[in-house]
Design goal:
This protein is mainly beta and 123 residues long. 9% of the residues lie in helices and 35% in strands.
Amino acid sequence: WLTPVKTGQIIEVETYVVFPTPKKYSQMAGVHFAASTKAMKQVKCKEGQTLTVQGGKFFCDNVFIGEAKERSLSGKPLRLFLFNGVVPGGKLFVMGAHKDSYDSRYMGFIDRSTVETTGTPLM
């Protein structure tokens, strides 16, 4: 279930967000995504919270949120996003549900302004 994001809407941690697939996702995955392709990821750390990386493990406000892999499924080395500090204003750290998801663990923050909709899983 997708809901359009309103101007000024606060996006909380654990919210699923939909945004245009960044070019760097295509570069990392080695796949060309059409300009209309969207990505859906879950917010794991937001502006004002403290993101830290320790040996490939990511923490938001000292709570473990996930771990990065050293190599992709094809064996290609993955570059880890290194950041230790307060998430800047207007930025979100997002992760996919799958362990092999290309997301903020490798490509860094997304801009909050690019979020078009939020998603609610229907189960």
